[in-house]
Amino acid sequence: MASSLTKDSVQPGTPGSEKTFFGHPRGLATLFMTEMWERFSYYGMRALLPLYLVAPGGLHMSAATATAIYSVYVSLVYLLAMPGGWFGDRVWGPRKTVAIAGGIIMLGHLTLALPASGTFFAGLGLVAIGSGLLKANISTMVGQLYHGPDDARRDGGFTVFYMGINLGAFAAPLVIGTVGESVNWHLGFALAAVGMGLGVVQFLLGSRHLDPRSSVVPKPLSAQEKVSTLRKAAFWAALAVVFYAIVGFSGHYTLKWILVPLTLLGVIIPVMVLARIKRDKELDRSEQSKMSAYIWFFVAAAVFWMIYDQGGSTLSIFADSSAENSVLGWNFPVSWYQSINPVLIMSLAPVFAWVWLALNRRGKEPSTIVKFASGLVLVGVSFFLFLAPLSIAGDGHKAAAMWLVAIYFVQTCGELLLSPVGLSVTTKMAPAKYASQMMGVWFLAVTAGDATTGLLSLFGVDLDRTGIVGMEATLAVVAGLAVWVYRKRVKELMGDIR
Question: How far apart are the first and last CA of the chain?
Answer without folding.
Answer: 24
